[in-house]
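Action item from last meeting closed. Structure (75 res):
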């Protein structure tokens, strides 16, 4: 396998591990926004959650995700 494929798989595995460290609410909000392409207002509407709560949840989740990735030698 080319090195790039191995590195990409390892990074994907690390990202998945770090996502699993988030709360379920943080993870689902981030997945809806970043992986499914929903806007923050769309995530709020779909989850019947106030927009400021969604913004805080995603912000805090992304901070935890960043810290986890840094701690594992990525990002």
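Sequence:
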């Amino acid at each position: 396998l080319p090195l790039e494929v191995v590195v990409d798989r390892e990074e994907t595995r690390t990202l998945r591990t770090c996502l699993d460290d988030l709360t379920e609410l943080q993870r689902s909000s981030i997945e809806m926004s970043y992986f499914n392409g929903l806007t923050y207002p769309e995530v709020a509407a779909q989850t019947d959650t106030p927009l400021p709560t969604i913004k805080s949840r995603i912000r805090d989740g992304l901070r935890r995700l960043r810290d986890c990735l840094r701690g594992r030698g990525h990002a």
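Note appended to the action item: The chain has a mean pLDDT of 90.
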